[in-house]
Amino acid sequence: MQAWISPDAAGVQTLRWETQSVPEPGPGEVRVRIHAASLNFPDLLIVQGKYQMRPPLPFVPGAEFSGTVETVGEGVRHLQAGARVAGFSGTGAFATHACISAALLVPLPDAFDLDMAAAFICTYATSQHALLDRGQLQAGETVLVLGAAGGVGSAAIQLAKAAGARVIAAASSPEKCRRCLDIGADHAIDLSSQDLRATLKELIGGRGPDLIYDPVGGELSEAAFRSIAWRGRHLVVGFAQGQIPALPLNLCLLKGASLIGVFWGEFAKREPQRNAAMMQQLVRLHLDGRIAPVIDQRFGMRELPAAFERMQSRQVTGKVLLLNDQ
Question: What are phi and psi of 5, to 5 degrees?
Fold first, then answer.
């Protein structure tokens, strides 16, 4: 097998493509022949040593993937060789093979395309957990999605529309705004030329959005929160902008509003049965044609540095895929 190795978590520039022995699965594990993996922003932070989770060195980066089970370890009953699966494992995906805990894998029906599956779990699970579980989104409410052209943002647009919400997308360029409208947003705010608060007021008046989906952080968070509706909910999903905002808490008081943390990974660990039920619901929504990952660009697995460069350029709309030679 071959894999990308991070020897020191010092950045993309130290990653090495190496040949290794094919691993054997331990108890509770399966070996997956990886078809494709996708990039998520935490993948970049992990190889830079900046993420909250720091794996032991050296490690194979890459959290999200799809593929085919080759062999199963002791105690695995629900998966067999040949099963098509998708998984989110934290590390190990930027390789040709990986041994993964069977509990982290989602069995896929034959109709589920493996390219789509590699870009599916993280963004849709995060957004579904945020909007429906933590945010308690109701049909007819207005949702503001920040960073709307990215992976989780594009998933949030589709899931909010599937739940019957009105969706306002905020993105950083005219091209990204067009992509947001193409996948279902009712309105798009171009942050390169439009003021967020003023444009929200034009679109929905003084009431503001009922739910704010915020994977961005930075200065945008406070501007959005100042526009929130009475009893609105602001979902803290991440900090892609790089800066963790410090919001004046008096704004919560004045608006009767809530700041709500969203950590899908921890939810999946602590509440595995609810997470599994949610994943099956998402699979059904995809097979029904109501949600589908937006694929920005496909690279070969050996082209990981170029894929990371694409991500760092902040030009990505949707998800970047890495494909192994099949």
Answer: -115, 130
Share of the chain above pLDDT 90, in %: 89
Among 233, 234, 241, 194, smallest CA distance to 216 is for 241
Are the beta carbons of 262 and 126 closer than 8 angstroms? yes
Residue 238 neighbours by CB distance under 10 Å: 20
Q: What's the chain's average pLDDT?
A: 95
Backbone phi, psi, residue 17, to 5°: -95, 115
pLDDT in tens, 236-248: 999 888 889 999 9
Query: What's the average model confidence in pLDDT over 24-47?
Result: 95
Of 43, 38, 36, 31, the C-alpha closest to 97 is 31
Task: Give the mean pLDDT of 290-301.
Answer: 95
The CATH superfamily assigned to 2-120+293-323 is Medium-chain alcohol dehydrogenases, catalytic domain (3.90.180.10)
Phi, psi of 100 (to 5 degrees): -130, 145
Domain ranges of the chain: 2-120+293-323, 123-264
**Cα–Cα distance list, 132 to 73, 104, 168, 315 (Å):** 35, 22, 17, 28
Domain 123-264: CATH architecture, name and number where available: 3-Layer(aba) Sandwich (3.40)
CB 308 within 8 A of CB 12: yes
